[in-house]
Amino acid sequence: MSPTARHLARLATLCLALLAAALPARAQLFVDVTRGNVEPLPIAVPAFVALGASETAAGPLAAVGENIAAVAAADLDRSGLFRPIDRRAFIAGPTSADVRPRFGDWRAIAAQA
């Protein structure tokens, strides 16, 4: 047997051994969904803070921030996964983009996100 034929025979044997070792590794994926999340997650969606009192084509910048937050809250509510908390329940609203959120205030009104 020539060296090339021996090399090909070894390569074929190695490929068959690897193929045989891979056959028992088949895993069946089984997902058992018995119950979904039935309670929507309470979420607080504060209005965006305007950095200045400027006017845009859509109106005052503060009003644009209110509109964006209202649309985001409505979209999350319609998904069925979230329940936006009424803004009147907020203890303190955002005053500046530089101020860290007071997470204790959000926990007090049961906001989880």
Explain what the structure shows.
- The protein has 113 residues and is mainly alpha-helical.
- It has a domain at 41-108.
- The chain has helices at residues 3-22, 61-79, 103-108, and strands at residues 41-43, 55-56, 59-60, 82-84.
- The strands form 2 sheets. A two-stranded parallel ribbon has the order 1-4.
- The longest helix has 20 residues, at 3-22.
- The protein is elongated, with a radius of gyration of 30 Å.
Unreliable runs: none
Mean pLDDT: 81
Report, as a whole number of angstroms, the end-to-end distance: 72 Å
What's the helix count? 3
Record the strand order, biggest sheet. 1-4
State the oligomer: single chain
Portion in helices: 25-40%
Q: Which structural class do you get from the secondary structure elements?
A: mainly alpha
Characterize the main sheet: 2 strands, parallel
Q: Compute the CA-based radius of gyration.
A: 30 Å
Order of helices and strands: HEEEHEH
Total E-strand runs: 4
Residue share in β-strands:
5-15%
Principal-axis shape:
elongated
Strand and helix layout:
Layout: H1 3-22, E1 41-43, E2 55-56, E3 59-60, H2 61-79, E4 82-84, H3 103-108
Parallel strand pairs: 1-4
Antiparallel strand pairs: 2-3
Can you tag this structure with a few keywords?
elongated, mainly alpha, two-stranded parallel ribbon, two-stranded antiparallel ribbon, 3 helices
The gist of it:
The protein is mainly alpha-helical. It is built from three helices and four strands.
